[in-house]
Amino acid sequence: MTKPTEGRLVWNHSTHISGLIPVLERLIRQDGIQTVTPGQLGRVKGHCPHLQLRVSVPIRGGFKVIARHGKTVQEVFILTNLDQNQLQEAIAIAMKK
């Protein structure tokens, strides 16, 4: 039986939310994750004291995830064959380590 291939982390932007990249690097090692692409950064009025990742909407081939920390928000696009609940569990595992 062959070992599943590790996913790929795409570096499109030079800036990311603090602490996001290590979580995404752990996420791409999980089965079913093909490509993770951090997207646009933005500012929000609300304050989120700890890094938080929430599955937002389905996209073609995966899901858009919203990462929040402090007053900063960043889109993360994840191409995967997992369903929404499985992806949420995979994100929770990546956040714990």
Radius of gyration, in angstroms, nearest whole number = 13 Å
How many strands, what sense, and barrel or not for the largest sheet? 3 strands, mixed
How many helical stretches? 2
The rough form would be described as globular
Mean pLDDT: 90
Low-confidence stretches: none
Note the gap between the termini.
28 Å
Oligomer: single chain
- List how many beta strands DSSP finds: 3
Side by side, the strands of the main sheet go: 1-2-3
In N-to-C order, the SSE pattern is EHEEH
Report helical residue fraction. 10-25%
Q: How large is the share of residues in beta strands?
A: over 45%
**How does the helix and strand content classify structurally?**
alpha+beta
Helix-strand blueprint:
Elements lengths: L7 E2 L10 H8 L5 E27 L2 E19 L3 H13 L1
Parallel strand pairs: 1-2
Antiparallel strand pairs: 2-3
Could you please describe the fold and organization of this structure?
With 97 residues, the chain is an alpha+beta fold. Helix content is 22%, strand content 49%. The protein has a three-stranded mixed beta sheet. The longest helix is centred in the last third of the chain and has 13 residues, at 84-96. The protein is globular, with a radius of gyration of 13 Å.
